[in-house]
Structures are given as C-alpha cells and as structure tokens.
Amino acid sequence: MTLTLALQLCQVFGITSLLAFGGGNAVIPQFQMLTVEHYHWLTSRQFTDAFAIAQAAPGPSTLIVSLLGYRAGGVWGALIATAAMVVPTSIIVYVMARLWNAGHGEHRLRHAVQNGMAPIAVGLILAGGLVVAREAESSILQLAMTAVATIILCASKVNPLIVAVCCGVLGGLLSA
Predict the structure, then answer these.
(1) Domain count, the chain
(2) pTM of the full predicted structure?
(3) Is the pLDDT of residue 5 over 80?
(4) Residue 134: phi, psi to the nearest 5?
(5) Which of 50, 76, 74 is CA-nearest to residue 61?
C-alpha cells in the first residue's frame, strides 16, 4: 500500500462519510463514481458484487466500505477506508448530540432540521438503489424478480430475508 493510495482512501471515504444521511446506502452513487469511474479500483461488476455481499451480510450497511477498501488496497485498504468512513462522522455526531441535547425545550430549528433530513435520506437511498440496478447485468428475469420483490416488500409485511432467499433460490434454479 502506497501513501498516495492511503490518502486517496481517506479522501474518498472520509469526505463521502459526511454526505451519508440515511446510512451507507445513501452514498452508493458517490462510491460507485469514485471507486469505479474515477480511481478504477473496481469494475462495475465488482462494485455490484461488493454491494450485494455487503447487503447480504449481517451488520451495518457500511460494510461495503470495507469491501471497496479491500479491493483497492488489501487488508490495510479495508482498515483505512473503514476508519475514514466511521471516525469523522462519529466525532461530529458526538459533538452535535452534546450541543443538541444541551438546548432546553422544543425549538423550531430542531423540528425543521429533523423534518428536512428524512426526505434527503430517502432520496439518497433511492439514488443508490438506482445506481446499483443500472450497474447490474440484468436479464428480463432478473428485472422481473426485482419488480416482484419490490412490490412484495412495499405492499406486505413479509420478512425481507424470506424474499431474498426465495429470489436467490429462484435465480439459482433458473440459471442452472
């Protein structure tokens, strides 16, 4: 791992972490643009696979950061990328929470900020989904499974794990 790569990883994940309203999935388009199109650390297919693995694994949605960092710089790349993603925002959240909770009573500014963050987070997460869908090598069958899974997940209270397993089994059977 070179110093240049370590600094690039810090820049990509440290700065992007400040935009991650709604979690790691909110900045998927930025990750894709930087890691695939700008630095060429991954191909589009590798990025989509990393996203799928990170989503399938238990744990926070920021697991993709470790996978992207690993692809760019091995174990050290994974550690640096993860630290760059987590440390700056953790410090900011800690300081802001202290200041936020120091205020007494309800404030209009507090409500305005809280109400404004939800639409931003939803928009960023939707954009991330669209980027991954666009990058995936999709057949008509995969697009149909995506549409059906989306409808089921939006219109019912079915456990997402059940939908994921069913799609995985169906995809496996039909591609064999």
Answers:
(1) 2
(2) 0.70
(3) yes
(4) -70, -35
(5) 50
